[in-house]
Amino acid sequence: MSGDVQLELWLHEYEMSALSSVLEKQGTTVEKRMQEMLIGLYAELVPHEEQQEIRSRLYAECAAEQTAEEAARKYTAFCVRENDKISFYQLDRTEDILEVAKFLRRYLRQGQGHGAAALQTSAFARMEPVTAERYDQLLALRMESPGKVTGVFDLDFDRQEVSSADAAEGWKTWSMQDVSNAIYHAYRKSCLRPEQYTARFLEKLESKELTSPGHLSARDISFAEEITEIDSLLNFYMETYFDVDKVFGTHVCTCENDDALNVYANYDCASGQVYDELEVDLHRADGREESVEYRLNAVEKATLLRKMDVYCLEQTGTSLKDYIAQLMAEEIMPPSAPLM
To answer: Which of 21, 87, 123, 195 is surrounded by the most beta carbons within 10 Å?
Structure first.
């Protein structure tokens, strides 16, 4: 990027001292007055059209520099839940699950008080509060550009759970205690490469994933039955092998009643996106029917989309995109004339 040019002028020190003394009484300096005169000279002598062209060039260079800086910047996002309150934070650097696990181990072992306060005095002390909207943006960007948002973590100190958004596999949730134990075992052996520590850590957490509301994972999502199309929505029936009561706040996983739950995920053909909410139908044993609200976040939607694409290929032999194209072609194609 272009820069400023420094000009060098000379004036005897006696003369400079006298001039500075006068200008000081006027509330200014030699440098300020010379700068004003130079700007005035430029404005007076350089044609207006050329000045406009130069301003445009400077603006373009500045915008390009800001774009390059933003492209090089990495983010980590945190959602912190404590005492039924939710806070969101952004950290302008790369952090991974290992660093979060180290913090949680220290936090649990030292018996610190509030988790949010401990987090802000730890290695993540430079994180800044952000809005829920900004957090949602970072969550979506985590799935679209994992090299840009290198980590998103949901620390639930009320439930003692930690969730991590993985760009390839979606949410993964564990108990904080299991994470603490895993990081201890990962680092019992020294002099390993970073990726080896990560592998040891994740190996220790195998089979310990939890089902958590707001964090439906790839292992929670599976489909059954035919894909149906209603009003430009593709309807996928979700199997409910996960803990639906924990996710939806219902009470059907019990022998105390005969209530049942049907869950559907919809794909909006018009927008080309997974619908923002799951369709959750609660069927009471006495015949009453209720709808349960469950809004999907960006990670859950991205995970559902991958699962839908795979299931569509299994059921129809075509990808989700090609299947929708076929449906649209059938809708606009005029009926064939009867054979005579």
So the answer is: 87
